[in-house]
Structures are given as structure tokens and as C-alpha cells.
Write a structure and sequence with these properties.
- The protein has about 375 residues and is mainly β.
- It contains 5 helices and 24 strands.
- Strand 5 and strand 6 form a beta hairpin.
- The longest helix has 16 residues.
Length: about 375
Amino acid sequence: MDERKLHKILGQDLEVPDMVNKKLREAYALVEQKARPAKRRGFRPLRTVLIAAAAAALLCGTAAAAYQVFRQDVAINIPQAVQGFFGDSRQPWERTEIYDEVGHLNYWPKREVVSVDPDQAQALVGDCLPKSGYQWQIGDYTFTVEGYLLDETTGSGKFYYSVEHPGGFPEGTVDEATGCLTYKGRIGVVFSTKSDVHWPWISGKLRSVDMERSTAEKLYITEGGASGKLGWKAEDGLNVKFTIYGETDRDDDILSVTLDLPGVKSVPVITVSDPETGELAAAISPIAVRADARHIIEYLGPNGERTLGAVRYVALEYADGSRYVIEDTGLDNADYGMYDDEVYVVEVFNRLVDPSQVTAVIVDNQRYEVK
């Protein structure tokens, strides 16, 4: 590996110092010697590659900051992935009042979890899962994407992944009261579509730790997310940026790489039209709902600027008369929620939903009948 080949790979002109070029040659020579890396227990390597992030790390920092990145395909355990996406191995909690560092009162709204029927999940979304899981060895961290589901109609996604580190993670990485990943773990995972769109990010904020599978050295994490703008395609695949941040905001990242995930089939969706206007009123999939919330627009200025209120209540009504209340005062049963650029509310479910059993979508005083 030399400077000329690196130019071709990265597609741009670069000035590579002699010391860095030497380290590049040494790194790639080491990889070529290890054509058949040692197997990790419990996984069957199908393919191992060195990605360009290893070279980029050498160029972007000092030689001491370099690390190698390897990927291998791993068998996906569908029952475990389904449990991670939708099941009750995540922690519920009651409404909890907390005070921040300056004494302001905040609170965690109540969160409920329910069990999942693996057979029903397989029937609803099994064809939309990737064909395998994907695992990367990044320095002394092992990052594995166990599965993901994408919904291009609602602009949402659900992700189940694990991060393993010998010796464990910093104290306070997982919040004991909620079972959620905290900033103290210094773990950053950001998913984005590879489609050519203005707003590619699909990641959310709430990252729930699978308390049944996780150990001191390996965390299994569920995350729901949504994009602010539609137009991307599930089949285009994803980028995922994996970062271990420095101990403070002033420290450099310990490592940061952008990784590639292949495209999948978008999950099935049922849509509901407004009977008066014919416009989309709501779209419901097994992982999310997108519903018209334009009633919260309080002011529309001459240049299109908007002042928004807030949606207070979102629920799905089922054929048996029961309701899945997603959002209410003091209650939040969504993995992620947002308003998109068209002022539709998007809620990513914290459980599995069978759209064929939904008879109505309720947003505040708006009721959208599913026929």
C-alpha cells in the first residue's frame, strides 16, 4: 500500500507525510499476513475486510492514534433480535422527578413495556431484516449490528446492536433507574441513509439497554429513530458512525469510523387519507406511525416561518377496543418522537404493532379512521 493507491481509494488528492505513509504500508502488510483471522467464540466469519477508515484514521491524526478496522458477517439470531426490538427485556419505569445540576425540576415520563410474540414478529417484519448481522473489530472495541428495520414511508428505523469492550465501561454508563445508555459511556452510534437526501440522519436519542442479555463487558442496545424529511429508500442502505468520545469535550475522540450497512426491504405500511382533502392523514407500520399534526401550527408568517405548539396525546385504537397509548401527559411509550418538516408527528413504537388490527389513529382531538 502506498500514497498513490491511497489516493485512488479515497478519491481525492492528499499529501501524505513520509511517517504516515510508512505506517500505512506497515498496517496493510499486517492485514495481508492475517488473511484468516482467529474466530471469535459464537460467530462464524464469512467475510473479513479492512475498510478505508483505518487509512483515514492514520491521515487525520497522529500515528499513535491509528487503529485497524475489520468487518465480518455474523449469523443473525432472529428471536433475540425481535426481543431486542420489541420485547420486555428493556426496563419499564414510573414517572420520576429529577433535578438537574442547577436545581431545575425535570422528570422522566412513565414508560411501559410489553412482551412480543416471536412468530407474529417474524410474519410481520421477518422479510425486512438484513440477511445477516454485521460485526466490526475497531481497536479493542467490538461493534455488532444485530439487526435493523427501516420504514421509508414514515421515515423511521429501529436498530439493535451491541458494543463489547474488555474491562467493561465507565461507571454510570447505564442509568440504573431507566436502563438507558448515558453520556458517561462515551459511546456514539449514529445511523444515516445512503440515499441522496438533505437530511440523512435516522438516529434517535433514547438508547435502551437489553437488561437480559447485557453483561459488564458487553451491552446490547435498542434504538429507534426518524428523519426530518422523507425521500430516502431502505434499499439504498445505511451508514453508521461509531465513535468513542474523549473523557471531556476538549479531548479528541478515542476512535471514530463510518461503516457501511446494506439495504433492506422497507416494512409494510397501511395509509389513511383525509376524506375531505384526500391528503395523507396517517401511515402505520409495525414499527412507527406518522400522522397529520398541522393543527399545532399556531402562527404562519409571511415568509413561511412557523410557531408550533405541541401534540399532547397520540394513540392507536385496535379492533378489540383496546388502545396503545403512545404519548400522554406523564406517559411516553415511544422509542423516539418528532415532527417532520411537513408538521406530521412521527412516533417510533416501543413494541410490535400489527397494522391490520389498527382501527383508528388518534392525535389530540383528531381521529383518523382506518378502513
